Fold this sequence. Notes:
Elements: H1 25-44, E1 71-74, H2 76-80, E2 88-92, E3 98-103, H3 106-120, H4 133-141, E4 154-157, H5 158-171, H6 177-189, E5 199-204, H7 214-232, H8 234-247, H9 250-261, H10 270-283, H11 299-312, H12 317-331
Parallel strand pairs: 1-2, 3-5
Antiparallel strand pairs: 2-3, 4-5
Helix pairs in contact: 3-6, 7-8, 7-10, 8-10, 8-11, 11-12
Amino acid sequence: MSPADPGPDDTVRILPRRKRTAWPIIVAAIIAVALGGLTAVWLLWPPLTPAPVVATSPASPPVATAVPFDIVTAGEQQIAGHVPPSLTVFRFADNPHILVLDFASLTEQGHMLNRLAAFIEKSGVPHDRVLTDAELDAKIREHGDTVETYYLGHDYAAAAVARFFATADRQGIELSREEEKLRALLRQVGWLAPDGSEALISIPKVGSDPRVTPAVRAGILRHELSHGEFFSNPAYADYVRNFWLTELTPEEQASFRTFLGKDEYDVSVEQLVYNEMQAYLMFTREPLLFRPDMMGITQARLAVLQGRFLAGMPTGWLRNVLATYLATASAK
Length: 332
């Protein structure tokens, strides 16, 4: 990092020189007499032992202390309706192991999470090392994206985020200010363990992009919360995996991989694929985000899959969400 520009208090002050004044000759004579007396005193005075010089280290710069995040516990509707003036951190009331980062700007979200996204789930990117700034910029622009449009929402297991930071440290990658803020947040809540079972998700502010309407924001939130449940609930993750393997036909699985591949997901990561399956097929209602025809199935087939998914789903808040949706849909 470049050192900060010096402020007013860092300026070196130079004292002005005094003007010379002409003195009478008699003053010079008096000084000479005085010096003679001092010389006699010095000859009679015992020698002085100089005080020992104590070596001192230069003062270390003060260590900046991160301001703790104010984390608010809230439910889905409260979070969806929130208008963030700046980054707001929520702890999800129905599952406290999920943190929601509510961004006022897609620029801030991108600078904090895009490199993490590439490290964890983007295709054509190594997942065993962290991209440099130049590599990340090239990857984002490869298909015409910008920092703001690379992602609208993010979701990650806390253990994967901890692996990202550990890998960046080993490589000596200088992370951005926003990325270091994320590290400080995880350190604050104690989520930097490599084997944690917590989740971190993000959502954008309404209007931060022309596509982000209130309905789209709510749709992104529901989608990402289902990912949060997957990452923080091992029983649910196991259930999703078994459903993917036994309930979707091979053709449907291939079609869904194609759908994800168009968005540059790394479909060779099996867990990523079936995690996205449950989020899109079961919990994404907003047509601008997902429709069944996007993966080549009918609405009737999707309804069958949703009914089967609900039938064996573990109890909890997310099961209640799906049950309410299907009951409402069948009543129409």
